[in-house]
Write a structure and sequence with these properties.
The chain is an alpha+beta fold. It has 15 helices and 28 strands. The protein has a 6-stranded antiparallel barrel with strand order 9-10-11-14-13-12.
Length: 682
Amino acid sequence: MAIVVVDPIPEAAPPTEASAAADAVSEAREAGALAAALDDGLAFSLPPAGVPAPAAARGGASFTAGVPLDFVFYARQKFPDETEEGAVAKLLAEIQAPPPEVNLESVVAAEIVEGASLFTHPCLYADPGAIDDTERIPEPWLARVSAHRQAVERILRAVGRIQIHHYVPRGVSATGLEVGLVVGTGFVVAPRIVMTNRHVAEVFAMARDSAFPFLKDGRGEQEPVVLIDFGGVYDEQQNVHRIERVLFIARRDEPDVALLELRETPGHEPPEPVPLQLTAPPADAFPREAFAVGYPTFDPGDARVPLYFRLLRVKRVSLGRMARLGRWEGMPRLFHDCTTLGGSSGSPLVDFGSGAVWGLHFHGRKQTADGSGNVAEPIWRLAELPAIGDILSAPGAGDAPAFSLSMLDAPETARAVALVASPSPAATASRPVLFVEGADFDDEQPFPAEWFAPGSPEHERVRATLPSVGLVQSQNTKGVTVAAATGFLVAPDVLLTFPVPWQTPRKTNKKPGVFVDFARTVANEPPRRVRATKELYRDDVLLLLRLENPADHPLPAPPPLRRERPDGPLVAERVFLVGHPAAAGAALGDPVAASRMFPPPYGVKRVALGLLGDAEPGEQPIAGSDVRHDCSTTVGDGGAPLVSLTSGEVLGMHLGGAFGRGNFGVSIWPLLEKPEIAALLG
């Protein structure tokens, strides 16, 4: 059976004689590909030449809030006389009708669950390391995805499209080729090691004794060039690596898994390994919200594929749930209802709560009422295979902690999610969180006299810091805020926050972009809102933005920064944190505790008091963090400054934490020692 291969769709450009010729070639190529698809029963709709899928889906009109791009596009095509809202409503009603029988090898998974659709179980376009910022995330998924955005993006960066080429023209680099035969999905589980399915690897390799050689072409002469593209999105941002060899292919009586080794290329490092769940969870851990990341490619058995998938072979995030553990074909398996198609084989199945990969998706079938139609290999079972366990237990492999019952109560372990901290490692003193009014505490609430007296030097240090902290908001093209965080000035017009993953570097300067409001307080005072004009620096935990400095409300002065390394750990240092807790945090961890610590209104400036402390033995802090603290925090506080009550200096930046276990941040002085940052800040 052939798989449809369509060349990458170029960005739209003004027509020229050269581009017109190129368009003619492209259209002919697409027509040929579609004809081949029709011959093999794999037909699906192709986007117009020269128009990326999300742009085509927009069609120049506003979309219904929270309805995925493909869904809106086809609703409007199917019901052209209806309003957008009416077309979406009709399409939703239509897909609730009993579906036809489908091919057992690949399936639009959630569509067969009663009352479900790609509106409730969406399959969203992705950039190489983020959900595409033009995609619309339906409720109730929006809050969940926003709260776990860093965890989603860590997985996204490590997932690639496996493709093979049986012929490489002389003098042409394999990594410069157009997309070849797409055979499945894989993800990085250890340095330069990719996990996928056995049935994916068997397309280009075979098991022979203890070796796994590549299959040669029909003449027995040419081995295929096997690549994995960790980009592979609708506008074809590539991040291609060559697969050097196959390390392992499981036997037929073993789980459907294979391991591939990437070629080492200096200056071209593959993504970091994903966190893995290596310990079996208790039976009562299910159901759990989950997502899968893969490259849906085809489904010859379901006529609805063209309706729900405007563009195939590109990276997507499918939202659903892990329903249960059970047995299938004589082995323990993990059942889920994340939407998949052929090409999704090898996708990681990720637990929203822990941010760890729980399963390796390998099979789709007709869904059942309990949402257990799709099947994945449990990661902890794969680790029992010696060839895999040795690799996953080696240094540098997935860093997820072993599963414990406490994770059921405190699932938010992804580094971007900051939750209400427990009173550890401090003594029994309370950890108040106080509203701000102007440049002081709101006088409608009790003053934290157990921490310092009104008008004391500590009080003045808090007041001096407040004006320099702002609410960082990323907005879409309609001016709607899609995500928010906290940031603070580190130079006269430079703001430090953690990476704003939904505002990708290539789109940073596009309007409306990112804004910072230094006056979002409970007093509802006039905004002091400025635009971020340039991204100066970005890594895994830092984002530096250049801000405009309007004449009518100049930027406040930055707070003093701790530039010298301390002689020892700052254990029990009294600190405060200035952030902007969001409503999404009220539903995480312990909702009762969260509502008590963080009553509405949300998205306004607050001060949290606490102490610094050491990490507990065996604790695995957030990647990049070197500071532990117990200031109470929640979603929206990421990027907040950690300031010493003793000196008034910024000691670090808050990153995230886990309910009942404490919070983590990064020290400021190592950041200032980075040459590229030192050059910016002077």
